[in-house]
Amino acid sequence: MKTFDLTNEHVEEFLLARRTDGYVQWCSTKGLTPLLTYLRALHVVPEATDAARTPSETLLDAFRTYLRQERGLVDGTATSYVGVARLLLDENVEPVEFLRDLDSSDVMRFVTHQCHVRNASYVACGLRSFLHYCHLSGLTPSSLSGAIPSVASWRLATLPTGPSIDEVHLLLACCDRDTTTGVRDAAVLTLLARLGLRAGEVAAMQLSDLDWRRAEMVVRGKGARLDTLPLPVDVGDVLSNWLERRGSCATASVFVRVHAPQVALSSSGVSCVVRRACRRAGLTPFSAHRLRHHCASDMLAAGSNLGEIAQVLRHHSLITTALYAKVDQCALAGVAQPWPSAS
């Protein structure tokens, strides 16, 4: 097979031409990543070179490695934090000098500006982590993470809302089990609604995580945490149906793209499965995390206590699970005190 000399400059020229002509697809390096990864695996195009990498990109790569190896963060969280750090550097030609001169007032101006256009918690967490890394690496003379104010948040202030059991049945029923995509989507939705897995945990599932003899599965949770959950019969059935359709491919991930390149399904890809199912079922699209809320509410309605729900959802603290105590309004009515009379 002939190898084409595709360089970074050729890719940038292609993207620039696409944007100039008004196209809305394949207009960024991220959009081309699946195609280029597939072609490089076939050795049709050479591997990407680091010749055009800027000092800021090198620093961001080091920060990502720190988050994954030292902090144990999953790819999705690490990508979010790196995105905030990229906003701070703003393609600065000399990031080392920029960080050396950075002070608390600069940090506050950045946070104030970004919180007007982005989620405040997202900005604060990502920037705090990056500034802590910069201090550990000697890039800043002092730790500036303390200059970032805490984002106002009230624990247990919200009420978890999940789809009803009828809506979940509609989601599962709209998956065409005669197609490979429908079988895969049914397995993804069942894991989310039946076991309360997060989107990232479904995407991270590996073939080796399934122990069919013991009817158990390993869940790769937050902070590189590994938990073992029982594998119910109905969940095992939809998984086995999908794995028969999936066939063999280069990746060991359980869930992969149906069409080439058959790479692992990402966390956002799992969320897209839920949103597409909502549209097919005629429901207002909602996030994958709401199916986790459904799992907890369904267990509570079936008589499970908060400790059992915490084990299934793998909460670090029972305080997090206590949020679902407000869902059972019938049980709460029994302990509610009557409103004092005017007399």
Features of this protein?
hpI Integrase, Chain A; 16 helices; 3-stranded antiparallel β-sheet; 3 strands; 343 residues
Structure commentary:
With about 350 residues, this protein is mainly α. The chain has three domains: about 1-50, no CATH class; about 70-145, no CATH class; about 165-290, Intergrase catalytic core (hpI Integrase, Chain A, Orthogonal Bundle). About 50% of the residues lie in helices and about 5% in strands. It has 16 helices and three strands. It is globular. The mean pLDDT is about 85.
Chain-averaged pLDDT: 83
Residues in helices, as a percent range: 40-55%
The domain count comes to 3
Broad CATH class of the largest domain: Mainly Alpha
Alpha plus pi helix count: 16
Number of strands: 3
Reported by name, the CATH topology of the largest domain is: hpI Integrase, Chain A
Q: Would you identify the CATH architecture of the largest domain?
A: Orthogonal Bundle
The gist of it:
With 343 residues, this protein is mostly helical.
Tell me the layout of helices and strands.
Blueprint: H1 8-20, H2 29-41, H3 55-69, H4 75-89, H5 95-100, H6 104-114, H7 120-136, H8 165-173, H9 180-195, H10 199-203, E1 210-211, E2 216-220, E3 226-230, H11 233-246, H12 267-281, H13 289-301, H14 306-313, H15 318-321, H16 329-333
Antiparallel strand pairs: 1-2, 2-3
